[in-house]
Amino acid sequence: MVDHANKSEREAGDLLAGQTRLVWYHSLFWKINVFLVCSVVLAYVMGATIGWVMVERDSLEQWRRQAELNAQVTSSTIRTIYTFIAIDSADDGQITKIISERPLGDDASILDTGFNPSDVLGLAAAQTKNNIWLFQKASDDRHFISSAEALGSNDGTGLSLPEYAEPLQFFTGFAEVGSIRHFIAYVPVVNLKGELQGALVTTIGEAEALQESQSKLLRNSFVLLLTILILTGAAVTLIMRKVFKPVPALVSALSRIARDDTRSVTPFQNRNDEIGHFAVAIETLREAVVEREHLRQVRDVAKHMEHLAHHDALTGLPNRTFFGKKLEDMIAQMGEDGHRFNIMLLDLDRFKSINDGLGHASGDALLVSFAERLLLLMKPGDIAARLGGDEFAILQVVRKDSLVEASRLAASIIRSVARPFILLGREVSVGTSIGICTETCLEVESSELLKKADIALYAAKSEGRGTFRFFKQGMEMSGERGHVLQHDLDAALRDGEFELHYQPIFSVLTSEPVGFEALLRWRHPKLGWVSPADFIPVAEKTGQIVAIGEWVLNRACADAKLLPPETFVAVNVSPVQLQQGSFLKNVKSALAIHGVPARRLELELTESVQICALECQEVLESLRALGVGIALDDFGTGYSGISYLMTLPVTKIKIDRSFVMNIEERADSRAVVTNLLQLAKSLGLETTAEGIETENQLQFLRSSSCGLVQGYHLGRPAKIEDIQHIYQDFYPRKVSSLGA
């Protein structure tokens, strides 16, 4: 183990050392060398360029003056011999044009002067020490043919003017004379009408000879530049090596500190320059690292202990203590900056059945997954905490509108939780109910705010779960209301306060109402209408649901005789009823007393652990043998819905409204509904989709081959008298559409 640890430490050190080794062209030493050498070269090149431009400019100016002087001397010499010509000059006396009444150098000129043109040019050349030509105009004004020259060869040498030269204007510059480039002075010869006859050209020398000195200067400049580069590079290298010699050692010292190796003292601390100061700084860092390592260990232990004291060990969310402290801080801040906040309390629907049925490991996994989804919906400043069990709380910072923001967050949480969870390889669906308190102010204690949110949570659960409610004045605590309901249930059954309302169930294919679901209603003499979500849990807990269920069963069978004869009646059954040994007997008795065929009765079961008990399965199999239909209500929202299909004699599944309500907006809801319909079809089961509220939902279910549908868009629950009135003429004539 020790050898392995030492090997790992060496490998880590080699890796870090490899990271500190720089490629030569990335090193600071190389960059400074390049910078200094480039600076010297740049300065030299700029100076040489400026000198070169000045030399070239001075040379051109000197050549121009020499050419102008040669043209002046030549023109003066020719004028002393050819007396019939005139000279045109500029303001500074420079001859710019020769005007002649006849061509220069013709036979008449020779007879008059006695001089051959070559001799005349030779006299002028003797004074200028350079060759001189006399040209005649060729086919155009830019090309000339030699008629005489100072050397007397007269071999037909031609002259071509450059593009920038004007044939009728005096100019100096480079031009091609024959096949050789010369620096010339060009003097045009014109007649009395100003027409070009020829030209007098003098040269100061061939271009190659004139530019030889410049070429030599350029070669010398390059040699000098190379010498400077070598000397500068050598000098800079020697100096930089001495300056940067301590740098690798200091880098190595920093690398050791980075590896938490603080045993070695930093070298070069005795130097008085920047390197020495740098070494002292590294040594100070090394000592600080040693000290801070001890402090960090102490701090980490304290931070871990503080985290454990203020956070839930399972989900990692803040716990009740932290949430309470944060709530007190938020109340205090309201007085300082006026910031508002909302309080939400929420818990998981059917969590206990999952925890009991699948085990605590699955329950813990559900809580962790739920916390993760919750955190994804939090905005900066919001706090989600676990108060205990499946109870969670949210402290939401209000930006603008407390009601709108709370509604938006609560709806997002409900949609998120509605997606199935995968717990230890099993798919589980749950829901959540949320209570919201927005009435926050300075005068209210934090405990009072939590109590209001708790009351709102109870209201949400009372209205069917899977929803959220805001606290309003007048809401009652669950314990108080449950206590009242428990004492009034017996009186309600005795005094006839219960009623059955029926909601029609339609066939998608034939648009016919084929059944009616019996829904229990309680008109309390003092409280008014009491929701089944309020009194059914109380009745199940106290066992009163057995007597109530028997009344519902008998009343539904009696009302079935008043409904169209081909329709069925669906009755909701509690697991508590199934566990009573008399339930099968009660069903048979109700069917016999009211003369209703067993096929017209359908029992709806809600997913729960209790209905999987052996005695329940035996009762259901006996009922199915009679011909009674068995429907699994709210399918897809329980903890193990598919397993029911394999163990219970189910004939139909009812797709929960939570899936149907979002099929227009959400692709995942459409996918869930489609898959459930395909599953039912493959198992040979009927299907009923609940909660149809729009025509688009109906059309989607029709296209997906759903069998039966029900919802407010098709028909609302009503008393038996109203149902008879609505459908009194249904048979034998059919209704034309579901919306009729």
Explain this structure.
It is elongated and about 165 Å long. The two termini are 83 Å apart. It has an eight-stranded mixed β-barrel with strand order 16-17-19-20-21-22-23-24, surrounded by four helices. Helix 16 (545-560) runs parallel beside helix 18 (583-594). A hairpin with a 2-residue loop joins strand 6 and strand 7 (180-190). It is an alpha/beta fold.
Beta-strand content bin: 15-25%
Low-confidence runs (pLDDT<50, min 5 residues)?
4-9, 11-20, 731-740
- Biggest sheet overview: 8 strands, mixed, barrel
Coarse morphology: elongated
Mean pLDDT: 81
Number of helices: 24
- Spatial order of the strands in the main sheet? 16-17-19-20-21-22-23-24
- The overall strand count is 24
State Rg: 55 Å
N-to-C span: 83 Å
What helical percentage do the residues reach? 40-55%
Question: How do the helices and strands line up, and which of them pair or pack?
Answer:
Layout: H1 2-20, H2 28-81, E1 85-89, E2 95-100, H3 107-113, H4 117-128, E3 132-137, E4 143-149, E5 158-160, E6 171-177, E7 180-190, E8 196-206, H5 207-210, H6 212-244, H7 247-258, H8 274-310, H9 320-337, E9 341-349, H10 351-358, H11 360-376, E10 383-388, E11 391-397, H12 402-418, E12 421-423, E13 426-428, E14 431-437, H13 446-462, E15 468-470, H14 478-495, E16 498-507, E17 513-524, E18 528-530, H15 532-542, H16 545-560, E19 568-573, H17 575-578, H18 583-594, E20 601-606, H19 614-626, E21 629-635, H20 641-647, E22 652-655, H21 657-660, H22 667-682, E23 686-689, H23 695-703, E24 708-709, H24 720-726
Parallel strand pairs: 2-7, 14-15, 17-19, 19-20, 20-21, 21-22, 22-23, 23-24
Antiparallel strand pairs: 1-2, 3-4, 3-8, 4-5, 5-6, 6-7, 7-8, 9-11, 9-14, 10-11, 12-13, 16-17, 16-24, 17-18
Helix pairs in contact: 1-7, 2-4, 2-6, 7-8, 10-11, 14-15, 16-18
